């Protein structure tokens, strides 16, 4: 008889793994249950409770009933400690079907039927109990049912339980069409109709459908596997275009990526309750977690040079300041850099847009983010102080940005512009709102660079980041595209031979007033426009004073155009907030963590190659 092998084994429902799933609640206060962790991952937390009386319970409740996949298992990583009086033996009370110090039960709260209990804490070796890990078949807890919405931990007085991870794991198999069977995901976490599941990694021989196979180790995040052996043999990329020649390669088995933010940033991202939490895609559903793991498994490998990791950037920056100015995509660039810096980045502080002073009570916890209210006034300006004295600022604007840049002397944040040492700028995809045909793009670039020359201090450096195109149909993308041309071809008519890299302003203007079927390109958002015209920034800077032109850099990130995967896509529909079920697909913004992290990596490499490092004390010119 042939052995059926699993294509992937993954936590299909992560109830707690550094933070509680946003679809779940618990019955204890944060003071009693959520404690800061001493685990290596910064901002990770553990769920801890102390049982004070016989029959005391820690209850975790799902906001929706969960229908589990067949052969699923509850996986718990935990430790137990107890006062001396509790160690002498488990309770013998007839009312407790489980005689251990702590027992676990899963049930459907609506039925209130008696539930089987599984023993967890049966003995104590010392007051510093080691971590234990159990994998309990769902059938043992639920019997013939696969439905539950409540987990109960019942303990004896004097016993403390600490949970590091709590999840439902299952072996997923590949259907004949090349996708996972949707029925193998928890029912309430299924993606919306028409949403394609990512292809899953093939299992190693001998996995036999179990969840204990050990896939090959991963290369560090954003470091190609081949670079580990040839790292010292390749020169550093000079970022003059040499970094654009290369390919995306899969440097990690997605099965090895447990929690995406831990893998990418070495820390836990917060659980947001605001309207923009869907950009933390992996927190939304089991399918989104799979999608994020696949996206993170790909690394950019330049052909003839290597990219330095972000770590060490704080020391390089020294006491200087870096300002990000742009729209929500530039805000993503800011957050990617800050999160990649890990422990070198401090608490984010929100600044008033007019006064640039720290808002009263607006300090954001280091393990949180102002992205919770992105788009509102509270988050337009913020700063993060770095370990070595530097400061990274963010000014986020949208449709008003270009008018403000053309009149910098009038903006409320002019003082910030005049004081920074490095300015990162991008006007993104908002230009077509004010200039649909892009007829005035070069004129606008000329006006803005003139203002920057006048307002920036003589030693300041300017970096303009190029803009990536969006990807129609990104909800079905499971891996990077083969080339940038493939990405751009998706914006052309089917079977058409239109010149993708030529812009017809008259045709674009006409398209704004006609139906989409009359358009030469399937590009309703003019995604091709910005990257076709952005060379105007470098050309305009070259016409300024020589000392300004030498301090102006174009950061070309066009290699990210191949990343049709990793977008937010339908993540906002996958969450538990029913009001978001009708949100349109987002094929422009990327998930955190995700491909946008390469903007931060590229920026760090450009600055290290082209801008002098900070002196030991003070800032370098």
UniProtKB/TrEMBL annotation:
Residues 315-603 form the Trichome birefringence-like C-terminal domain. It holds the Pfam family PC-Esterase. InterPro entries: TBL, TBL_C. One of its GO terms (molecular function) is O-acetyltransferase activity. Coiled coil: none annotated. Belongs to the PC-esterase family. TBL subfamily. This is Trichome birefringence-like C-terminal domain-containing protein. It comes from Emiliania huxleyi (Coccolithophore).
């Amino acid at each position: 008889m042939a052995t059926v092998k699993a294509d992937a084994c993954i936590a299909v429902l992560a109830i707690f793994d550094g933070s509680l799933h946003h679809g779940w609640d618990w019955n204890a206060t944060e003071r009693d249950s959520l404690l800061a962790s001493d685990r290596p991952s910064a901002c990770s937390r553990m769920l801890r409770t102390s049982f004070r009386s016989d029959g005391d319970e820690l209850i975790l409740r799902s906001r929706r009933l969960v229908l589990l996949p067949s052969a699923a298992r509850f996986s718990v990583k935990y430790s137990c400690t107890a006062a001396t009086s509790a160690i002498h033996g488990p309770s013998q009370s007839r009312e407790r079907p489980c005689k251990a110090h702590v027992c676990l039960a899963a049930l459907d709260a609506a039925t209130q039927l008696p539930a089987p209990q599984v023993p967890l804490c049966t003995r104590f070796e010392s007051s510093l109990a080691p971590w234990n890990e159990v994998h309990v078949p769902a059938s043992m807890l639920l019997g013939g049912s696969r439905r539950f919405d409540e987990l109960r931990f019942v303990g004896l007085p004097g016993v403390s339980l600490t949970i590091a991870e709590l999840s439902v794991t299952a072996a997923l198999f590949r259907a004949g069409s090349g996708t996972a069977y949707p029925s193998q995901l928890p029912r309430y976490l299924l993606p919306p109709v028409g949403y394609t599941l990512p292809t899953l990694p093939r299992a190693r021989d001998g996995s036999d459908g179990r969840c204990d196979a050990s896939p090959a180790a991963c290369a560090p995040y954003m470091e190609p596997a081949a670079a580990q052996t040839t790292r010292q043999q390749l020169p550093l990329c000079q970022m003059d275009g040499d970094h654009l020649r290369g390919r995306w390669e899969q440097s990690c088995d997605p099965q090895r990526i447990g929690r995406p933010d831990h893998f990418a940033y070495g820390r836990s991202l917060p659980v947001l309750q605001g309207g923009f939490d869907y950009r933390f895609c992996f927190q939304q559903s089991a399918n989104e977690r799979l999608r994020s793991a696949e996206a993170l498994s790909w690394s950019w490998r330049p052909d003839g040079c290597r990219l330095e990791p972000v770590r060490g950037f704080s020391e390089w920056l020294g006491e200087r300041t870096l300002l990000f100015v742009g729209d929500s995509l530039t805000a993503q660039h800011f957050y990617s850099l800050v999160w990649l810096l890990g422990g070198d980045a401090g608490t984010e502080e929100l600044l008033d847009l007019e006064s640039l002073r720290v808002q009263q009570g607006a300090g954001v916890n280091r393990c949180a983010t102002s992205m919770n209210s992105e788009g509102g006034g509270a988050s337009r300006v913020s700063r993060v102080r770095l370990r070595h004295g530097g400061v990274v600022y963010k000014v986020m604007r949208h449709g008003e940005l270009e008018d403000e840049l053309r009149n910098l002397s009038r903006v409320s944040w002019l003082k910030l512009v005049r004081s920074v040492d490095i300015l990162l700028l991008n006007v993104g995809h908002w230009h077509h709102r004010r200039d649909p045909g892009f007829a005035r793009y070069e004129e606008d670039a000329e006006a803005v660079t003139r203002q920057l020359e006048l307002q920036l201090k003589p030693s300041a450096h300017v970096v303009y980041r190029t803009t990536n195109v969006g990807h129609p149909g990104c909800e079905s993308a499971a891996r990077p595209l083969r080339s940038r041309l493939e990405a751009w071809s998706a914006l052309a008519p089917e079977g058409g031979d239109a010149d993708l890299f030529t812009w017809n302003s008259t045709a674009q203007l006409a398209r704004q007033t006609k139906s989409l079927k009359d358009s030469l390109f399937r590009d309703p958002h003019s995604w091709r426009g910005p990257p076709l015209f952005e060379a105007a920034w470098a050309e305009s800077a070259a016409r300024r004073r020589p000392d300004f032109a030498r301090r102006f850099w174009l950061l070309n990130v066009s290699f990210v155009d191949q990343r049709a995967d990793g977008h937010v896509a339908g993540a906002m529909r996958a969450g538990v907030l029913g009001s978001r079920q009708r949100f349109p697909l987002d094929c422009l913004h990327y998930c955190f963590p995700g491909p946008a992290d390469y903007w931060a990596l590229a920026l760090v490499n450009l600055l290290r190659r082209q801008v002098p490092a900070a002196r030991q004390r003070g800032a370098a010119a």
